[in-house]
């Protein structure tokens, strides 16, 4: 690398310098500052005192944090596989040049355009036990309405369902773009060989779109670990913390309790978790190739 | 070409206005936005005694009477402290802010609020004009950090039409229980007679009401909730008794279930239950409903303090209040004078504000016949003398309230046993309080 730089000349690095400066200022510095803050007892308005790893030790004794950690993991497990499979299925179904497919692609993507506030207002009207759409539907067929947002067993799955509906557009588009990169001639050759649709999918489509699959999985893992708006607006993390994910926990600790050092420690845990979750699909892909 | 440049320049300049020479102060408040039905300079077209309608009208009136001051009004969602903290951290604090008295210590202890004594005194407002409860709540280290604007408490809002149907009206007065057993008995009778739950409660996403219920019946028993500013004590026989009562009410379906605040308020307005436990701020709205022919509350609304259920030495009432505070920031002398003129105006018109249902925090207004003549005041006025708040040296009272309410809701709805919920609440709150910086 250094040798190459010497050959090409340092001045070339200047082209990347503006980006590196902004990246360092907006990303690297806050990351390091957050790490430093997590080693302090501090409130929103200063008063920082270095306490080493005490915040981290406290986190692992904090039942609310551990519950939020579990909720976040569960939420990712509930959302990501469903999102990937549904988005891939939709992309396969809509990867054709018809008006209906074009309309459906736009319709599915439209939900992603909504802001989290608008989306949660819509879903509140659907899920609320008092006058919600599902509640009316249940009453109409003589069933009791379910408290989707206030039952500890239903709150997190409800948030996951809402999130899948909201987030389906982008992964579907990523899969569509990957599918459109696969040369048509390969599919034509498979058709000549009378390959079944399942064989075509398994032997041609899937290998061809594996990079997109890894990307979507890693991206959705990172995104769903950061879920915040949906629980904050629909359940406020309740009941009894059953739908409180890590980011909501960090927000409450930092901004309601002003315990900003402790919140920073929880943020570092989340960062580590996202890092691992983002690399696992890529690692799995490499191991798969080697095998 | 020249002509085009000249015209473009002229068009750009026409967008510029002369800077307003008047001092501008930013007022940040909660209570909602209702400009759609409160025209500037006119009366509200609906709900004239609502909090939002009154405060909007008052600030409009101040602007009209003080044309030399420009108000920049910023309405934030309740309770507004996340925004305020972010604004202060970014050195962009408003000039005056509504703040619950229980929250003032959080900001005062970090030196973020301006003491108001001298400025208020210059306007003729002195602490001896406040009620003793309000004065104690806004005074820290001998200095006043907020202008009290009201005192509020949670109350029993009663649908008298349903009460009458259940035989719970005697001599025009609602019959309220005098013990926990009597409450359960009356609630069962009410349910049998009306097929509706006795209580209407906000239970979903509720961050305050359950904690306030518990505070009410702990304070009336002289229980020491905070042995010191860094510790709470909750797992006591009285606390278990109070939470157990609400759990029983829930278990026997004597209360509404799974309603959030908006749904619970709508349910009470629509006659879906007998007693709605909510604060003073709803009195004006419910009175408005009670004046509408054909509505379930028509000529059938009363409001009463919490009944004494446990034979306590004092009557039950947990009281807090709204105040106006002035965050520390650089201001011109003209802006500072303008801010204190607005505070003076608000103190003079505190009586108007109490039309919303809030109790007064000004000693003079307590004895004012106009105030006393307002609906329900005779039933509620005594609360300003016997109501109790939490100690002012306890920080993060809103965070405590949220944590406690979450645990109590879990206990009442049967997600966890009462004792475990109280122990968990104690643990969470003490962990926060012992790690304050």
Overall description:
The complex is a heterodimer of chains A (291) and B (437). Chain A is mainly alpha-helical and 291 residues long. Chain A has one domain: Orthogonal Bundle (MetI-like fold). Chain A contains 14 helices and two strands, in the order H-H-E-E-H-H-H-H-H-H-H-H-H-H-H-H. In chain A, strands 1-2 form a two-stranded antiparallel ribbon. In chain A, helix 3 packs across helix 14, helix 9 packs antiparallel against helix 11 and helix 11 runs antiparallel to helix 14. Chain A is flat, with a radius of gyration of 23 Å. By secondary structure, chain B is α+β, with helices and mostly antiparallel strands. Chain B has two domains: 190 residues, Periplasmic binding protein-like II (D-Maltodextrin-Binding Protein, domain 2, 3-Layer(aba) Sandwich), CATH 3.40.190; 210 residues, D-Maltodextrin-Binding Protein, domain 2, CATH 3.40.190.10. Chain B is built from 20 helices and 14 strands. In chain B, the strands form four sheets. Chain B has a five-stranded mixed β-sheet. In chain B, strands 7, 10, 11, 12 and 13 form a five-stranded mixed β-sheet that branches. Chain B has a two-stranded antiparallel ribbon with strand order 4-5. The relative contact order of chain B is 0.17. The mean pLDDT of chain B is 91. Chains A and B meet through strand 1, strand 2 and helix 13 of A and helix 3, helix 11, helix 19 and helix 20 of B.
Question: Outline of this structure?
Answer:
In chain A, 73% of the residues lie in helices and 3% in strands. By secondary structure, chain A is mainly alpha-helical. In chain A, strands 1-2 form a two-stranded antiparallel sheet.
Keyphrases for this structure?
heterodimer; A: 291 residues; MetI-like fold; 14 helices; B: D-Maltodextrin-Binding Protein, domain 2; D-Maltodextrin-Binding Protein, domain 2; 5-stranded mixed sheet
């Amino acid at each position: 690398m250094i040798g190459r730089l010497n050959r090409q000349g340092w001045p070339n690095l200047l082209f990347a310098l503006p980006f590196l400066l902004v990246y360092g200022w907006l990303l690297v510095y806050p990351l390091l500052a957050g790490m430093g803050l997590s080693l302090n007892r501090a409130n929103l308005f200063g008063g920082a005192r270095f306490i080493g790893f005490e915040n981290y030790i406290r986190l692992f004794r904090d039942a609310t944090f551990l519950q939020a950690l579990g909720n976040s993991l569960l939420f990712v497990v509930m959302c990501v596989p469903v999102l990937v499979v549904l988005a891939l299925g939709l992309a396969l179904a809509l990867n054709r040049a018809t008006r209906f497919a074009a309309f459906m692609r736009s319709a599915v993507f439209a939900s992603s355009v909504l802001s989290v506030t608008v989306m949660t207002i819509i879903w509140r009207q659907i899920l609320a036990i008092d006058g919600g759409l599902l509640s009316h539907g249940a009453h109409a067929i003589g069933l009791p309405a379910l408290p989707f947002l206030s039952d500890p067993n239903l709150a997190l799955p409800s948030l996951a369902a809402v999130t899948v509906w909201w987030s389906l557009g982008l992964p579907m588009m990523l899969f569509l773009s990957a599918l459109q990169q696969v040369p048509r001639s390969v599919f034509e050759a498979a058709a000549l060989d009378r390959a079944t649709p399942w064989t075509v999918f398994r032997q041609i489509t899937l290998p061809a779109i594996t990079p997109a699959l890894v990307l979507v999985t890693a991206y959705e893992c990172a995104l769903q670990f950061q879920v915040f708006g949906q629980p904050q607006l629909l359940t406020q993390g309740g009941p009894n913390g059953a739908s409180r994910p890590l980011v909501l926990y960090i927000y409450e600790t930092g901004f309601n309790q002003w315990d900003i050092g402790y919140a920073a420690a929880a943020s570092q845990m989340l960062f580590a978790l996202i890092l691992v979750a983002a690399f696992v699909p890529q690692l799995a892909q490499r191991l798969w190739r080697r095998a | 070409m020249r002509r085009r440049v000249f015209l473009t320049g002229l068009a750009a300049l026409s967008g510029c206005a002369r800077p307003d020479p008047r001092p501008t102060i930013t007022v940040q408040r909660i209570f909602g936005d209702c400009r759609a039905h409160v025209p500037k300079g006119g009366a509200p077209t609906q709900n004239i005694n609502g909090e939002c309608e009154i405060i909007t009208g008052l600030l409009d009136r101040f602007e009209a009477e003080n044309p030399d001051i420009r108000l920049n009004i910023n309405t934030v969602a309740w309770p507004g402290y996340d925004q305020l903290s972010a604004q202060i951290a970014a050195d962009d604090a408003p000039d005056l802010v509504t703040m619950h008295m229980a929250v003032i210590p959080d900001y005062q202890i970090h030196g973020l609020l301006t003491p108001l004594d001298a400025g208020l005194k210059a306007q003729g407002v002195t602490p001896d004009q406040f009620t003793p409860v309000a004065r104690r709540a806004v005074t820290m280290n001998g200095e006043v950090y907020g202008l009290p604007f009201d005192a509020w408490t949670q109350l029993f809002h009663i649908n008298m039409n349903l009460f009458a149907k259940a035989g719970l009206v005697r001599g025009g007065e609602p019959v309220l229980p005098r013990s926990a057993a009597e409450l359960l008995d009356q609630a069962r009778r009410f349910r049998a007679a009306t097929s509706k739950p006795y209580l209407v409660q906000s239970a979903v996403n509720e961050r305050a009401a359950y904690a306030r219920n518990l505070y009410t019946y702990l304070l009336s028993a002289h229980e020491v909730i905070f042995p010191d500013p860094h510790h709470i004590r909750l797992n006591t026989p009285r606390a278990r008794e109070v939470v157990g009562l609400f759990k029983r009410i829930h278990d026997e379906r004597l209360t509404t279930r799974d309603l959030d605040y908006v749904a619970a308020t709508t349910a009470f307005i629509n006659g879906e239950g007998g007693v709605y436990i909510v604060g003073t701020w709803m009195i004006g709205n419910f009175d408005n409903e009670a004046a509408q022919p054909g509505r379930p509350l028509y000529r059938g609304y009363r409001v009463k303090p919490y009944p004494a259920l446990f034979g306590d030495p004092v009557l039950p009432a947990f009281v807090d209040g709204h105040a106006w505070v002035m965050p520390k920031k650089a201001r011109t002398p003209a802006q500072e004078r303008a801010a204190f003129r607005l505070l003076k105006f608000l103190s003079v018109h505190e009586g108007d504000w109490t039309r919303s249902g809030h109790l007064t925090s000004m000693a003079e207004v307590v004895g004012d016949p106009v105030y006393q003549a307002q609906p329900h005041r005779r039933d509620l006025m005594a609360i300003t003398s016997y109501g109790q708040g939490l100690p002012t040296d306890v920080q993060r009272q809103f965070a405590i309230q949220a944590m406690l309410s979450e645990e109590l809701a879990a206990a009442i709805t049967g997600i966890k046993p009462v004792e475990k919920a109280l122990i968990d609440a104690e643990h969470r709150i003490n962990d926060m309080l012992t790690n304050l910086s």
